[in-house]
Design a protein that fits this description.
PRTase-like, Rossmann fold, alpha/beta, Ade_phspho_trans, 9 strands, two-stranded antiparallel ribbon
């Protein structure tokens, strides 16, 4: 793994939080009435914001072999974070996007169910220490499902990093319940 300098990543967290505060687009009543959607697209489109966020997501990372980005913004972030850490990246895809054979996990959502997949051929994840990356931590179900999928292949999810955590939705507790309290969750910003 490439070297992570704590002072550099701590500074990046501060810069990323400022970029999030400055560039996040707020959209009322989306996707449904009463919801205030926080669109991070303008933050990621800003070169300084993106740079700060990518470095900030590596804060506290040690001994990572692979970054797994969750479909779809996790892909954008995961590749950049992997480059920063000098490790490989794996896309955790929504069901039906990969040709067989695949490893898959289906999990419950508040409005139904979803499936996540990774290739079953061409990679050996046995013993790989994985950082799971996504844009937002809400209820935590997707992160737990992705980690379960990776752990089933012999990998070990050793951390979760997100840009924004929606604290009131209990995602951190869901992750602790599903993966254990030893798996750290790093959120650049809390909402």
């Amino acid at each position: 793994m490439g070297g992570v300098v704590p002072e550099r990543t701590a500074d990046a967290v501060t810069r990323a939080q400022a970029a999030i505060a400055r560039h996040t687009r707020l959209v009322d009543d989306f996707p449904s009435p009463g919801i205030a959607f926080k669109d991070l697209t303008p933050v990621l489109a800003d070169p300084e914001g993106l740079s700060a966020i990518v470095t900030a997501l590596t804060h506290g990372c040690t001994e990572i072999d692979l970054v797994a980005g969750i479909d779809a913004r996790g892909f954008l972030l995961g590749g950049a974070v992997a480059r920063e850490l000098e490790v490989g990246v794996l896309a955790v895809r929504k069901g039906g996007k990969l040709p067989p054979p695949v490893h898959a996990v289906t999990y419950s959502l508040e409005y139904g169910s979803a499936t996540l997949e990774i290739p079953a051929d061409g990679l050996d994840l046995t013993g790989q220490r994985v950082l799971l990356v996504d844009d937002v931590l809400a209820t935590g179900g997707t992160a737990v499902a992705a980690a379960d999928l990776l752990n089933r292949t012999g990998a070990s999810v050793v951390g979760v990093a997100v840009i924004m955590e929606l604290v009131g939705l209990g995602g951190r507790d869901t992750i602790a319940g599903g993966l254990g309290p030893h798996v750290p969750v790093h959120s650049v910003a809390l909402d």
